Amino acid sequence: MRDxxxxxxxxxxxSSLSKKLKLRSPxxxxxxxxxxxxxxxxxxxxxxxxxxxxxLLLFLSLLIVSLLSFNLYYPGLQNWSxxxxxxxxxxxxxLNVLLLICATLLILRNLxxxxxxxxxxxxxFRLKMKLTLGFILVSAFPLILFFFVANGFxxxxxxxxxxxxxxxxxxxxxxxxxxxGETQKKDLKHFVTIVAEDYRxxxxxxxxxxxxxxxxxxxxxxxxxxxLDGIIWYDDKLSPLISNLENEEKKKLWFPIPQEELKxxxxxxxxxxxxxxxxxxxxRALLPVRMEDNLYYxxxxxxxxxxxxxxxxxxxxxxEDHQMLLRLEVPIRTNxxxxxxxxxxxxxxxxxxxxxxxxxxxxxxxxxLVGGTRRISKGDLDFQIDLQVDDxxxxxxxxxxxxxxxxxxxxxxxARSQEELxxxxxxxxxxxxxxxxxxxxxxxxxxxxxxxxxxxxxxxFMIKNFQLRAPKIIGKHYxxxxxxxxxxxxxxxxxxxxLGGEHSIRKDTHLQQDKKTIHIxxxxxxxxxxxxxxMGRLLVVNDLTEIDRSTRARAxxxxxxxxxxxxxxxxxxxxxxxxxxxxKYLGKMEDNGLLNTCTATIVxxxxxxxxxxxxxxxxxxxxEINPAPMNINQVLLDVYDLFQPGLPSKVExxxxxDSRIPKTMLDGEQMRRVFTNxxxxxxxxxxxxxxVDLSSSYSHELKMVTVNVVDNGCxxxxxxxxxxxxxxxxxxxxxxxxxxxxVQQIISDHGGFIRIxxxxxxxxxxxIELPVSLHDSSIGRISI
Length: 784
Description:
- The protein is of the alpha+beta class.
- It has helices spanning 4-24, 32-42, 44-73, 75-78, 88-119, 125-163, 165-203, 212-225, 248-253, 259-263, 306-327, 329-363, 367-377, 392-441, 460-465, 484-500, 545-585, 592-620, 632-643, 668-685, 739-749, and strands at residues 230-234, 240-245, 271-277, 280-291, 294-304, 445-449, 455-458, 504-513, 516-528, 534-543, 628-630, 651-656, 664-666, 690-699, 704-711, 753-758, 764-771, 781-783.
- 58% of the residues lie in helices and 17% in strands.
- The chain crosses the membrane at residues 54-74, 89-112, 133-154.
């Protein structure tokens, strides 16, 4: 509820605000809006502003054209080899970046102006912004598209220069040059060995100085034979001794191998060298040759001159020029992209400026109406425009005033309706929360579907007890969630409901679940809208298994009570009569064997019947439990000590307890009876040799104590597992079938549950789970 004082203050503020608005709203002449529009269009200041912007746009356009012409026709830019030695690229890039920043600032100036008007909440700023942004988008989209297309073409051209076939050819030429030089060196190293061997065969290892003319003659012949440009002999001090070169041109180009280069490489032979001279390239190989006691060095030489050398030098120079061009790849690409960006941004600036100019010419005549709408949007529904205009705008203003009055009336009505709706929603929300809590915690399965069979609601009891398969059930079709047997039953009930025309239909049935049979009651309802149209179906499921089990247990107890009553009374006279006959006639008759056998049989069978009657009496009159705090480990230890001394030699009884188990509310005497019965059954199931494991554990999260009795005996037939706890069901030939029924009743009275299952290998496992406190339990359950 609102404070009455706050309502009173708010009402006073509204009345004072309306008075101020009436005082501040001057009455304007009828033609004031038209005169303002004409003044806006024809004012000299506005025309001057328009002319200055047009001149600025023209200047920027001329500047772009001049820069493009400068880049295309300036000689310094046409000679790519001069890029490494001049400042043109750097200067142009910086100039383009500066122009790019200027164009960006011009665009940002108009956008910032719009944002400033938006922040100042000037009238009409939204329309200005929409028109301006509209022109920006209309102009920017094709320009940006043009930019990317042009940039793609430009990139393709530059890629051809820097990364295309031309670059690949120059790289191959470089490899060819390197291979050519290496081939020359390799051939000379090969031939220098052959030439040295030829000389040994020719000169028979004579000293060179003994026959110089013959040596020169041999050198000329060998040069011609092996197509060499020269053969040179060095003495042991690596000084030229005898030389023979092909012609005078090559004699001028040739020079001895530098001493420092020779001495640095005397460790390996033959050696190859390459020296570039002014107009040629010298390739040579050197090999030491020993003749008699003298050591000489033989050099063979090839000298490239003429057109071959010129072509190789041209290729090398082109490669160096292209490598220099590659170093300028990034500046050239940057400069080209900057030009495109500059052109695009200037065109966008033109569209921005034109959109802003057009927006101003449209917005200013309707600013008065925009101001009124803003006042209305702020909640001032008492505002009225006191402006007399006879044209269409006057009709619009009259409609606006009428609208404000209607809005004021509607707002009061809406406020009342809103308060009522809030109260209704609060009540409905509380009801929904209550219903949801009930449905979530009720021990009944609830399952609803729409008209198409898709699940709209299911509660946890239905999911848990009917083992629905899908992880996320809501929204799935019921056929994919329910089992095949459940689907068959549900579809049959649905057909009966549709054909019978009833609002609901009920059916009791039995289902197989985890190798056991459960008894359920299923009731299917047809859900209808308030108009009577079907909106889905609701299935309510109740598990009657425990009710049936309890009913059967009560019935068997009544049967046991009557049997014990009817049989127990005549047993004692029968036994006494048989004993009297034995006492009186045994030993007095000639044929005592038959009398002895018959009377002994009567006495023994009467004792067996008495034992069975006592079991019936115990089952029919189980005492109520008297729970007290005790540790179940102590109960297990007592039972273990009771059985351990009398165990057969080939049977082992093992006990393993959990020390974390707290004290539990138990009836010690009845729990000893439970474990005594279970150990009797386990030992009876072991034929000759085996073991029985008795263990306990504790779950802190569930606050449950678990006891397991595991044997490796003969086990329980699968067909008897689901009814093993029913009275008079036993696997022993002489058993009464009441032991496990009594065990189940005691565990149920303690709020726990018991289940029995066969081990995978051999034997049986009995699991008992008991709550630490009886208040934490619900109803004892049996699980097979």
